[in-house]
Amino acid sequence: MVEIKPLHYFVSAYEEGSITAAASRCFISQPSITHAIKSLEDRLGVILFERSKQGIKPTKEGQTLYKLATDLLLQNQQLEAAFTPDKKVELHLYIQPDINIERYCNIIDTIQNTSPFIDLSIVETVDQAQLAIIDEERLSSQFQFKVLNQERYQLVVRKDHPLATENVVTLESFKDLSFIERPYCTNRKAFERLMNEKKISITYKGKSIHDLQIQGLVKLGLGVAVIPESYIQKDDDLKYMAIALDAPITRTIVLAYRKLPSVLMTAMEETKWAYCRKK
């Protein structure tokens, strides 16, 4: 008889295309995933994955097992739910660190209120998640998603900065400015490419670890910064300016999901999700 747990690990490896990602998703060590797959291969007398430096690729037998295993795991979940209707369903949520989660508070509330048996917990990586609020650029193909918001970037300076009299700036305005670096920015390379095309060099005076800190550093007079619009706040000491570009650089924030309980999957498909616009 094939046990349920190895099938769960096999399905995770199949969907992630990586032993490492599957281990992260299942909160176990890589050798445990490898051992589970090997035990299935020995039990069934087949090879389930072709292994290479690029990861793992399912064989024909692996594809067949995946279809059967997902059906079996779903039936097992339904069986448990039928006899333990009050059992909590734990959902793992990933929130990208540089996203202003306060803008999406109503979404979190809606998810939690969909069912009293949903227990939402935060995970460290998107590989571990069933739900994610994330930049679309960082999302893997295993997820479906709903677009929440598209935002541009603005330059933030102190109110006494020479540029503070402007409402709109160009990249040429960046010359000779000292910046606080935002190393986690998904569009950093796009900005750097434009700067290189215009032969504008950037001087960095330090790095931030999140966008609230970066504004504090600007307020202290340690430099200027480029931040997403969602982090703009009412502050008498700071000035925010739009950046004039021929093709605006934006990021798209999405609500991503996979492998959800039926009640929440229905909500995902039917609800028009919106973000909080209050500043």
Task: Explain this structure.
This is LysR family transcriptional regulator. InterPro entries: LysR_HTH_N, LysR_subst-bd, WH-like_DNA-bd_sf, WH_DNA-bd_sf. Belongs to the LysR transcriptional regulatory family. It comes from Marinomonas maritima. Keywords: DNA-binding, Transcription, Transcription regulation. The chain is elongated and about 75 Å long. The chain contains eight helices and 13 strands. Helices cover 35% and strands 24% of the residues. The strands form four sheets. Strands 4-3-5-13-6 form a five-stranded mixed beta sheet, covered by helices on one side. A four-stranded mixed beta sheet has the order 8-12-7-11, covered by helices on one side. The protein has a two-stranded antiparallel ribbon with strand order 1-2. Helix 1 packs across helix 3 (30-44). It has three domains: 4-83, Orthogonal Bundle (Arc Repressor Mutant, subunit A), CATH 1.10.10; 89-150 and 252-270, D-Maltodextrin-Binding Protein, domain 2 (3-Layer(aba) Sandwich), CATH 3.40.190.10; 153-249, 3-Layer(aba) Sandwich (D-Maltodextrin-Binding Protein, domain 2), CATH 3.40.190.10. Strand 1 and strand 2 (55-58) form a beta hairpin. The model has no long low-confidence stretch (mean pLDDT 86). The chain is α/β, with parallel strands linked by helices and 279 residues long.
